[in-house]
Design brief:
One of its GO terms (molecular function) is glycerol-3-phosphate O-acyltransferase activity. Its EC number is 2.3.1.275. There is one protein chain. 74% of the residues lie in helices and 0% in strands. It is built from 10 helices and no strands. Helix 4 packs antiparallel against helix 5, helix 4 packs across helix 6 and helix 8 runs antiparallel to helix 9. The structure holds SN-glycerol-3-phosphate.
Length: 194
């Protein structure tokens, strides 16, 4: 029973639509009606600028970290943090508080990994910025950071980590279908500040 409550809590935590809250309360707009239409940090940066972008990205990461920490906070050693974290990622992507139109799973997945293997998160972030510097595509950098994460996880021999990061990366790629098409068509927007 308590397990079910933790999973629901993680989903609800992930469902908190930080991009929508910051956009509506701070600027009076729904960021899903602007830019790429995505309810995520990148589209917030693009639409509302650096302050709002950082705030939303930070909040989205935090949702994943907190969700993955729930088993520890409730003293439930038998519940795997990564399993609980998946529920937050699903909440972030299909949020009950925002008509199930959420983000692309990147920042919240990162937050889950930050809780479970901080070093993996830090090196993934570094890899993300290297790809971003070279390509200028946030979407491509997000997907390739996930691929990097899978390769890293293979060295850890941590089976749950290998399985979950493979699932999360596949889900991230699936959520970036439109971006992949735009990259191929050369219409994907590039970041200008790098
Ligand atoms: O985190 C999402 C990012 O990889 C792409 O976002 O708004 O460019 O589709 P966006």
């Amino acid at each position: 029973m308590i397990e079910a409550i933790i999973f629901i809590l993680a989903y609800l935590l992930g469902s908190i639509p930080s991009g929508l809250i910051v956009g509506k309360l701070g600027y009076g707009i729904d960021i899903r009606e602007h830019g790429s239409g995505n309810l995520g940090g990148t589209n917030t940066f693009r639409t509302l600028g650096i302050k709002a972008g950082l705030l939303v990205t930070g909040a989205d990461i935090l949702k994943g970290t907190l969700a993955a920490a729930l088993p520890l906070l409730f003293g439930l050693d038998h519940l795997h943090p990564l399993l609980v974290g998946i529920f937050a990622v699903v909440g972030h992507t299909y949020p009950i508080f925002a008509k199930f139109r959420g983000g692309k799973a990147v920042a919240t997945s990162g937050g889950v990994l930050l809780c479970y293997v901080p070093l993996l998160f830090i090196t993934m972030l570094a890899f993300f910025f290297i790809v971003l510097y070279i390509s200028k595509y946030v979407s491509l950098s997000s997907m390739l950071a996930g691929v990097y994460g899978i390769i890293y996880s293979l060295f850890t021999k941590d089976i749950p980590l290998i399985i979950v990061i493979t699932l999360l990366t596949s889900f991230v790629v699936y959520r970036h279908r439109a971006n992949i098409k735009r990259i191929i068509d050369k219409t994907e927007p590039k970041v200008k500040w790098l």
